[in-house]
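Bench log. Compound arrived from synthesis this morning; before running ITC I wanted a structural hypothesis for how iron/sulfur cluster sits in the protein. Inputs:
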Amino acid sequence: MDNNIIEQKKYKIITYGCQMNLHESEKIGGLLCERGYTATDDETKADVIVFNTCCIRENAEDRAEGNIGALKKLKAKNKDLIIAVGGCMTQQKDFAEKLHQTFPFVDIIFGTHNLEDFGRLFDKKLTQKKKLIEVLPHEEAIKEGTPKCRTSFPNAWVNITYGCNNFCTYCIVPYVRGRERSRKIEDIVSECRQLVKEGYKEITLLGQNVNSYGNDLKDVDFATLIDEVSKIEGKFRLRFMTNHPKDLTEKLVQAIARSEKTCRSVHLPVQAGSNRILKLMNRRYTREDYLEKVELLRKYIPDVAITTDIMVSFPTETEEDFLDTMDLASRVKFAGAFTFIYSKRKGTPAEKMDGQIPEAVSKDRITRLIELQNNTNREQSKEYLNKTVEILCEDFDQKKGMYLGRDTHGRMAYFKSEKNLIGQFVDVKITKTGGISLIGEIIW
Ligand code: SF4
């Protein structure tokens, strides 16, 4: 046996919630990689376990608490194991306090505002036994240069803004992520250029509301950013999320339309189709405004695929309000919809609203909405039959034994190949369509 072999230390990050959080976990991973740690999927082999939590959905919070609790046994077996919890749940003072009381075996608690400072906290923990709790009450200036351990080749995510100024009444984000701050355009473009150089084939620009990028800077807006990133040489796709209908301007739609790199797909969360509910949500647009934005997108980008988020059972939602949502969804014919039932988020104005909707009514509404959306997806899938589409191969599905990837509209297709094609653009002829996914054969 070679006694000189030093076993490499390992980390595992458990991420809850959205793409924004997944990318932030890549930054936590980058800080640990910089310190000589490598990733593992097996938490029994990990020297460090980090929970990157989310409080946007209620069940994410419950799951996180359950999973943190389950680590008590592991910690009892391995006293050197470091357990850290960060993200938007811990950014809430009372949750951080509860976590501290309920799970005394957690070593580090940090928030969203000091996520990029995790490396310093981690180093401090290595040299002292004491538990570290650092949750900053206010956002700090944007920090550039945090290393990233990217986990989604050939896709890469790039933050363009942090925080949100919109204060939708159901949403906790502005309280846990602070006011909107935009990264400098030169920093974003340079990160994108480097990613293309490294072989990434799809870049997604991330922000709570990418459309308001630059409002806090001089002389730049999201349209300028799209133009600048599109000038980067090389074959790659550009996506962005998420958008706010009130900030989607004609200038921006024109920039998307003229960019050869930008995908023909826009995620435009509508949330509800009733003006009364939209007002209660503080969304600051009406259903008529939203339908106008859809028209605008289709005028400049006729084949654009519009996807959305729809919430049912916001407090006081009546059957009539819900039918307005169904009507809007059937008019727009979304290419995809993330549908969910409203759930109370502590500390938001909606939490205190009267008129919470009974569970049985909510379940009935969501079932009807999903059925409507499934029918739309089936109809749209049929249009793909016998067509050849360019797919960026993103992964291999072990269960299906097939590769998979998406077209410019974001539609997923599966296909067989003897060769590993991950990271390559391939032409796929669609031979079978079902719900939202497609099956096809590669045209060599
Ligand atoms: S736009 Fe509204 S829903 Fe989106 S993050 Fe901001 S407050 Fe939340």
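What the model suggests: The two ends are 50 Å apart (CA to CA). The chain has four domains: 10-134, 152-263, 292-382, 388-442.
ITC booked for Thursday regardless.
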